[in-house]
TrEMBL record:
It comes from the Bacteria. This is Serine phosphatase. Residues 23-176 form the GAF domain. Transmembrane segments: none annotated. Gene3D superfamilies: 3.30.450.40. It comes from Aphanothece sacrum FPU1.
Amino acid sequence: MNDDNNFMFQLVRVSNLLEEPINLENGLAEAAKLTAQILRSQRCSIMLFSDESDDSVNDPYLRVFTHYGNLPTSAYAEVTKLNEGIAGYVAATREPLLIKDLTQSKFVTNARYLDEGHNSLMSVPIILSQQVVGVINVSIPLERPSFVEDELDIVEIFALFVGKSLQIAQLQTIMRSKFVEVAVIRDVIENNRQPAVALHSNPTKLAKIVAKSFYKELAQAGFSPNQVIASATEVLNLLQDSLERHKKRIK
């Protein structure tokens, strides 16, 4: 199979991911794998923005969501702010970046994983609804010294697919629950948002929207503060029971 046919075959595989019910983690892991394979690279990682509470971080930050290849486990605990490091720079500028030799670039001091003899990498923003929601990184080209511009174009195509995967996963989450659907509609109306902005890829933001709607529904129904607290406590108890059952199944 020649390179052009192989590229089209891989794109069809990614397209098929979009047509199926998405488990986001599995879907993006497969996208990272396909990206690395078609670009003949050893490593590909997908980073997404998170706004989860962190006492040491006040601003939005990137974290590794999934990867393919030999990325250290410690990478998942690392936090990257806007304009910090290579991924933070790409997220801030919204521009794709190709580095042919990291040791000869201005980013050498920002590199976290310098591999001797493998210093070329590509980093591309993942854009959804005109917002940067993450970054896809490809590094360590196989059987050649560096990546080239044409390969950067391919990463940009895969970044588009990743963005669409995030959007579809979000829509599937909303459509599975009438309550969540109503909560998102209420958020759009009350905050004068564009619908696409409300459908953000970050599940933490969606959870906050649902929580606010849950509280407002109870308050409008005449529940007292103590009754609202009791309802929230019951939700936590149900979650705890679910986690316990999950632990037993694993054992």
